[in-house]
Structures are given as structure tokens and as C-alpha cells.
Design a protein that fits this description.
This protein is an all-beta fold. Strands 2, 4, 5, 6, 9, 10 and 11 form a 7-stranded mixed β-sheet that branches. Strands 1-3-8-7 form a 4-stranded antiparallel β-sheet, with no helix packed on it. The radius of gyration is 14 Å and the shape is elongated. The N and C termini lie far apart (about 40 Å).
Amino acid sequence: QVQLVESGGGLVQAGGSLRLSCVASGSIFSINAMGWYRQVPGKQRDPVAVITSGGSTSYADSVKGRFTISKDNAKNTAYLQMNSLKSEDTAVYYCYAQARVAVTSTPRIYWGLGTQVTVSS
């Protein structure tokens, strides 16, 4: 199995910055991609950013130009640098990884438990 642990959430004023980290551990053979979703109470979980094993990135329109996703392959860690934060960025941020636990296994999605980001206006 693969475990994901997020950190770095907290309370920040509008216009401020936070950096989220997500560490993947366990029986990891390979990671195809890592990314972040976010969710506010009563709404669906929405994609924020993703980075592939090759380094390609993609972002939700609402965060383009403000958020940057990166990774450290040696540490199986993904980061989300969030700048110019807005009150509408307030949500629980969930990390995920598409990973294999063996060369013959099918890639599947693993999720972290989430970290709260609150932006005060």
C-alpha cells in the first residue's frame, strides 16, 4: 500500500502565501503523477494541480499564475506553492498519487487525509 501525508496548511491573510507538502511512502514501485484537489463543505472535490513523472504540469484556471506544483522524485514528495491567496482558496486540500506497488500491478489512485487552508479577507 501507499500512504500520503500532507502538511503545510494553516491560516493566512489574503494576499499571503503557503506551501503544501505531500510525502508518499510505503510499497511504491513507481509514481506516474501526483497532484492536489480541494474541497469546501457541501461541494465536490475539485482538481487544483497535477505533475507527472516527466515533469509536465497542469492547473485549474482559478489558480493559474498563483500556484506552482513541483516534486522531488528522490523523496517521493510533491509541493504546492500557493501565492496571492484569496478567500475563495479556503478549502481542505487533498494530495493524491497515481502509483504502482509492483511492476505487474495496475496503477491506482491513493489519497491523503487532507490539510486545511483558510484564507482570511
